[in-house]
Amino acid sequence: MMRDYVKEKVLARGKRISIGIDVHKESWQVTAISEGEELFHGRMPGDYAALRKLFTDKQRDVSKRFMKGYFEGIKTYLDDEEFSVGVIQKWTRMKSRDDVKEAYALQARNMLKIPRTPLEGVKKILEGLEKIPAARTADPRRFVDMSLIDELEKEGFVANLYKH
User: Fold this and answer.
1) CB of 31 within 8 A of CB of 40?
2) Residue 164, pLDDT above cutoff 50
3) Which residues contact 136 (CB under 8 A, 6 or more apart)?
4) Burial class of residue 31, CB neighbours in 10 A (0-12, 13-18, 19+)
């Protein structure tokens, strides 16, 4: 379990924290640094699905707040083209604003306001995993958890967000 890897709980309220994540095939590492001091460093097992499930179950409120921020980011991306193009241009270091605008327009046209993973797409991917015969008959719902999105929709968060 994840708690076996956490050495100590550190409070850094009001401080800037930098988080570094180093992902490898068998494991991943997380390092948190604040004001030049290492607050946390831990190595986690490579079972990402179990880790995600553990986190969303144990830290439901944090997970929901993250998803709310993600939804708000999608809305900002879709509603404020100039801001979004500026962010893309800054982080991709593309020189041509016209090229960035073209890429933005394509992405925005295809972006889902509610980012549900299509089960049919998961099924197609599973069917294509030739080296894992059991994948072809696996239920795609085993690999997707939409419960946070379901909750946010049921609570009216998504409808409220897109009213404005």
Assistant:
1) yes
2) yes
3) 126, 127, 129
4) middle
